[in-house]
């Protein structure tokens, strides 16, 4: 087993008064127009827009995602990056503010195969509230891709950890292992879970 934001005549005001009144009206109109402006002066420099440093989700935004105006604090457990099996860059920090499940599996593992059906079934349902992220290791990339295709796991992030960096980081010593992280970044479970237990835990975290 390997590990790894005043009026004049006729009630008319004197000429000077009229001129003063016109001036006041003009000034007021200018101020009113300035106060209703909704965009930058086309002749002036472009406006600068503040962009939040980070958002909460690499996946479609959902009810569990943190507000862009108040990015979630990134816990140490989610301070890592990786590549998915299809070569896409992945940053766990974008999941901050939500519970997360990391599933460590190997392509030749019979137990992993039996759990894959449950993961494929529940992961899309909880994608926005409790993301499930696979961490593939202990095997060749071709075998890992075949495993993902066979069990219809392509809709769920599957990380390529052939080098075992994440397995070692989380001290995973066997497959299949589920590492459950709550919304504060605390690991609340690490170890085996059958399909029923996994479904129950994920539903509870999403609740």
UniProtKB/TrEMBL annotation:
UniProt KW Isomerase keyword: yes
Matches recorded under InterPro entries: AhpC/TSA (IPR000866), Thioredoxin-like_sf (IPR036249), Thioredoxin_CS (IPR017937), Thioredoxin_domain (IPR013766), Thioredoxin_ResA/DsbE_sf (IPR050553)
GO molecular function, one term: antioxidant activity
Protein name (record): Thiol-disulfide isomerase/thioredoxin
Record-linked SUPFAM superfamilies: Thioredoxin-like (SSF52833)
Transmembrane segments: none
Key word Isomerase present: yes
Keywords noted in UniProt: Isomerase
Domain (Thioredoxin): residue spans on this chain: 59-207
